[in-house]
Amino acid sequence: MKTVVIKRFGGPEGLAVADRPEPVPGPGEISVAVEAIGVGGVDVLIRSGALAAYGFGEGHIPGGEVAGTVTAVGAGVDPVWNGRRVWAFTGTGGGYVEQAAVAVDDAVPLPDGLSAVDAVTLGSAGVVAHFGLAHARFAPGESVLVRGAAGSIGITAVQLAARGGAGAVAVTTSSPARGERLRELGATHVLDRSGTGGEGYDVVFDVVAGADLPAFLGRLNPNGRLVVVGAVGGQPPPDFGTALMTAFRKSLTFATFSADTVPASERRAVRAAQFEAAVRGELVTVVHEVLPLAEAVAAHRMVDAGEVFGRIVLVP
Hints:
The protein has helices at 41-48, 116-135, 152-163, 176-184, 213-217, 241-246, 264-279, 296-304, and strands at 2-6, 15-19, 29-38, 65-73, 85-89, 99-103, 107-109, 143-147, 168-172, 189-191, 201-206, 220-228, 253-256, 287-292, 311-315. With 316 residues, it is α/β, with parallel strands linked by helices. It comes from Amycolatopsis nalaikhensis.
């Protein structure tokens, strides 16, 4: 089968198409004929070599989520899965493929009316947005700032905060045009990437992290909470905790959030509910572009250039 691998760390040109044997599902696994692959920010970080210290080597296949049709089941898996359309989590890699073997516990059946492309646009992002806001203890009436709102996680967080009764939903983004699109999705205030001019917030939902993180701690109201759910901007400065101590009397909270800490059964339940909500039009999926799998280099170039609003999806 055709797949895309990281031939060498660095820029997008380090990705290459390669032939690999089709996987055979093991015990507790299903085999999925892939119809859509989500391109995520973590794929870009792994490709760049930024996460090499975590065990990602050259030859790694990127991609954390796919959608398609089950073609085979492994030992111990109910045959009823055969022929089902599913979304599936491929972990920290293995998704840029034509055929994927995944744990059945990491798969969710797709409802009628939801395309494979929409499934990989919402699948991972929706769960991070849902549980990330819960981790921040977001409550109706509170003000929320979504930092890095133009990606699929941020776009979903904006919608969930608005639907959840936020008193205000501010966003940071790179252009007025993107700001208008985010207003259509529920944002009430649009700020530039620095967040300059915004009022205080009860919750900062941060997809970016990076060097400017301390400034956003400074935009929290008393008892405010900042939760980092991604680090597309890189690591914060080593002394970022100084901002918390300087504002000691405001009782601020800083936290990180990974969906890996949520039980699989809870992730599946929320994901299934969000898929149904998308079919009903209650959650909007935003697809920036759909490209062939062989054009993964072009997809990563767009991500690196900051050109993406929503999600890029690859199709075999």
